[in-house]
Design a protein that fits this description.
about 725 residues, mainly alpha, 35 helices, flat
């Protein structure tokens, strides 16, 4: 195959050299692998290829294949082979994309200077034959930041931003949106350059500046990290939820971020680069086994975020998470100490977590063994002490006496006195498991279930398969409304080792566990249905509206069942077809008598007040403001034809007098509650809202909109 040289006559027949003619017009395929994501589309599908002749097509197909081969090798982690393929290709074909990809390969190998040298021809302003792309300048900015050449990095970053904005603005008017995906991936490299400069504000500014341009979830990840590092925790929580759609590990980050915002977890900074989930999970397992040192693992604060997520969210492996928390507090330096002290006062957290934090502080030497420690447990300030107990196989004399006294007091119904006797010997003497089991039973009688669980768990650690311990744990789980765990403990009971007394009660326990499981299943089904309703209503709330939505548009957005409800209230026989039903209701709602009927029959006083409030605000208001004043719709459901809502916003929505949706306000998409425009004046008349007051509000709104549009145009 003959290769077309840059200095040869252009095959289009213009008489000019190829480099001065069609080569400059083609500007290479943006959908090849610069951003690290190869589309592998045939060249003829590329938007620059519409007028290419065969010679040009052959040349660019060769370049495309080399770039794709380099990308495959990068994906496989074969950096040396990828470098060879791209470097050899560059010898035969001078190509901006290929040069960019070779530079990135060398960056990944840690050869920063060599990578920057690779880009040098594209960065040279005197080189008129070669031109760098926004991607080129983004990578150059990263390299200079890593080499601590900060002024150069800033200059390249500014050039990358300027060139990207200029390029995308031009192409948007010429090229279909879907064809620009490869170009939009440049935003990742440019944001990454700002990240390497640790300029969190610029990372966030670029994210929102290119809000409609993001082609990859890494943009959201970097914006979430920037928000977290700037202390904008609510913003970070929102962004973590977006990241979680593509990187499931981030689904647990909002809870940790919320605890940082509340001051429970001390602030820490996150890096912009990710470790593999496999590596992080291996580190967590290594910590629990003692094969990984915590101090080394904590150098990666993404690992710290994952570890905190594991600790605060794990239910199945509670023992492991408690052990890891203890280590985090004991070995996490000043930060770990602050974490431990915060946790022992966070009364809304499980007591087991707080006790692990306390133990970590004792291990760290912050508190001495036996020293009184003030902690806020279960909403009350309590004095706690830690003391090592030796496990006793047989009871000492004091324990024997205490157990006899407790048994006698229990028969007399004097449970509190019995508890005091057993607590004293269990905490102060050597730990004797049967005494702890008896103590837990007494505590259950007094409905002190968490304390009972603590003593049973201590006994289980020592005699994990003892039928008496498992029987009481199963019964305790039932008391606490935890049927799944009750079943687990019940199934672990070995009947051959159980006493006759336990065997006699096992059948009753089995029945109770089975009955609780059925009730729990029913509850879960109810919760599932409730979640489904919330999801359906949330979908409706996302539908686009305007602040001047018309009635016919509003009716189109209502579920069919809601239309039937309105027909029923107005005593209208619903038409079979939806379009005809919408027409029926459109005509009916324009009749003031029907509006009056809806106000009197369907709405209560708060709902009528809401309509009055909206009318005084010009016919619409942000949902957030309405929720603050009239209550949130959270939990209000969706199937309102069966169960009419009580929340005013939901009630007026369900009968078609207002609609909820999203609209653009001050360049942001916000949820609003809107009264259809045709209903505003009739409702104002019925609700005795003065005409002047309502019209004045409308005029103010129009003036504000006019001012906004004038500003926008300028």
């Amino acid at each position: 195959m003959t290769k077309l040289g840059r200095n040869e006559p252009c095959p289009c027949g213009s008489g000019k050299k190829y480099k001065k003619c069609c080569l400059n017009d083609q500007k290479r395929n943006f959908e090849v692998i610069e951003g690290g994501a190869s589309s592998k589309k045939p060249l003829e599908e590329n938007f620059f290829a519409n007028n290419m002749d065969k010679a040009q097509s052959d040349l660019d197909n060769q370049v495309f294949e080399i770039n794709c081969r380099g990308h495959e090798l990068l994906d496989q982690g074969n950096l040396d082979e990828a470098e060879k393929v791209l470097a050899d290709g560059l010898q035969d074909h001078e190509d901006t994309v290929m040069r960019n990809n070779l530079a990135v390969t060398r960056l990944l190998k840690g050869e920063l200077e060599k990578s920057l040298e690779t880009l040098a021809p594209l960065l040279n302003p005197d080189n008129t034959e070669l031109e760098g792309s926004p991607y080129t300048y983004g990578v150059a900015a990263q390299l200079c930041a890593l080499l601590n050449r900060l002024e150069e990095s800033r200059a390249y970053l500014d050039k990358a931003i300027w060139l990207y904005d200029k390029t995308i603005a031009k192409l948007k008017s010429e090229v279909p949106h879907e064809k620009l995906e490869g170009l939009r991936e440049y935003t990742v490299q440019i944001m990454r350059a700002a990240a390497y400069l640790e300029d969190h504000r610029q990372v966030l500014d670029l994210f929102y500046h290119w809000e409609d341009e993001h082609a990859r979830w890494e943009n959201y990840f970097m914006a979430a990290v920037a928000s977290f590092n700037l202390g904008r925790y609510q913003q970070a929580i929102s962004l973590w939820k977006e990241v979680g759609k593509y990187w499931p590990a981030a689904n647990s980050f909002p809870e940790v971020t919320g605890l940082v915002e509340r001051g429970v977890i001390p602030p820490f900074s996150l890096p912009y680069h990710l470790s593999s989930l496999e590596k992080i999970n291996q580190q967590i397992e290594g910590l629990s086994r003692g094969t990984v040192k915590l101090e080394e693992a904590l150098q990666n604060s993404i690992f710290c975020m994952m570890l905190l997520s594991f600790i605060f969210e794990t239910q199945e492996e509670e023992d492991t998470s408690l052990e890891l928390l203890e280590k985090l507090v004991a070995n996490g330096g000043k930060w770990g100490e602050e974490l431990g002290k915060n946790l022992i006062h966070a009364y809304y957290l499980p007591t087991s977590l707080q006790m692990s934090a306390l133990h970590g502080l004792v291990l760290k030497g912050v508190y001495k063994e036996g020293e009184p420690i003030i902690a806020n447990l279960e909403g009350e300030e309590q004095e706690v002490t830690f003391k090592k107990n030796v496990v006793a196989e047989e009871p000492d004399k004091q324990t024997q006496i205490a157990m006899k006294k407790a048994k006698k007091l229990q028969k007399e119904g004097r449970y509190q006195e019995a508890i005091e006797h057993l607590e004293r010997v269990t905490l102060e003497n050597n730990f004797y498991p049967p005494a702890a089991i008896n103590l837990s039973i007494l505590l259950r009688f007094e409905d002190r279930l968490q304390e009972a669980e603590k003593y049973l768990m201590m006994a289980e650690e020592i005699i994990p398969e003892d039928p008496l311990v498992l029987f009481n744990l199963s019964a305790l789980m039932l008391d606490q409304g935890r049927p799944d765990e009750a079943e687990e403990y019940f199934l672990r009971i070995d009947k051959e080792k159980a006493s006759e007394e336990i065997l006699e009660q096992l059948e009753l326990l089995e029945y109770e566990v089975y009955n609780a499981k059925i009730q729990d299943l029913s509850f879960k089904q109810h919760e599932l249905m409730r979640s489904y309703e919330e999801m359906c209503r949330a979908d409706l709330e996302e539908k686009p509206v305007t602040t001047k939505t018309k009635l016919h548009t509003s009716l189109k957005k209502l579920p069919a069942a809601w239309l039937d409800v309105i027909c029923n209230i107005l005593e209208i026989e619903p038409a079979r077809r939806r379009k005809e039903r919408e027409k029926q209701l459109y005509e009916a709602l324009l009749d003031q008598n029907n509006l009056k009927r809806l106000l009197e029959i369907a709405l209560d006083s708060p709902s009528r007040s809401l309509l009055g409030y909206l009318l005084k605000m010009g016919g619409w208001e942000r949902l957030s403001a309405v929720s603050q004043k009239f209550g949130t719709m959270e939990g209000a459901g969706y199937f309102w034809e069966e169960d009419p809502p009580e929340v005013p916003t939901a009630l007026v929505w369900s009968v078609g007098l207002a609609i909820v949706g999203r609209t653009n306000l001050d360049k942001r998409r916000e949820k609003v509650v809107v009264i259809p425009e045709e209903l505003r004046q009739p409702l104002a008349d019925l609700l005795n809202i003065k005409s002047g007051e309502y019209q004045a509000t409308q005029e103010t709104e129009q003036t504000q909109q006019l001012s906004f549009h004038n500003f926008d145009d300028s």
